[in-house]
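We store chain and fold; example below:
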Amino acid sequence: VLGESRCQRFVVNIHELLRTAGSFDAICPGALTEIRSHTGRTDGLVVHSGFEPQHLAALEKMETVPDDGVLRLAYVGTIISENDFLQMLAALKKIRAQVPQKIALEFFGGRNYRSRAWFEPAWMTEHGMFTDEGLITALRRCAWGIVVMDSAGVDPRYSRFSFPNKVGTYLSAGVPVLGFGHPTSSLAQILLEHRLGRFTSATANEQLEEFLLEALLLPSPRAAFREDILRCAHTEFNAAEIRARLWRLWGVAGASSVQTQV
């Protein structure tokens, strides 16, 4: 819409502003590295939307919902890459019958996906809007949370410099992630670094089918990834720690005593 040359000028202007800014943060490590490479700065922080102390405490105490014979796969929010999502969906449909449990694909966020041609009400459900706590309660019933980004590298900069907030949403309910994306994406980086679930950069149908079948046959995935999810929640998504780092960066006196304030 804006044109390549105008967008490039915006990027150059942003880098000039960042060179003289008192502080800056980025949404993921890839974005932080990119900013540093163009500005010569060596500071900056990665800041995710975080979990408050009470949310971390609730996650620690969270118990698995009893098995009812249904393997629920969650998809929260917007479908980021339509083509990749449809390819994943085709692979999922292909291997459904090979999984002992009944598979249910559940959409959250009120995007009206039930009106799409690919939506199959026999095994797909679209929920309306929830409160934050209501969404966590609903997601606790799910075995996996799905995140699909651009696997083919059509827009590699977007994959590297953006971060899907779906990841944090799933972790808040103790749900491991089934990730699909480019190997250089921020999604690949966090899933492989913290072992929060399973990730693939496959684009061939057979490889996607093998990946999904292996993941969906894994017994008790929530329990299998629980310790890694808790560890990541406390280190990467700890809102109090993120605020404390920001206060220290800004030179706020008594940072440790105000770190839990909004």
In short: The CA atoms of residues 86 and 117 lie 11 Å apart. The two ends are 37 Å apart (CA to CA). The mean pLDDT is 92.
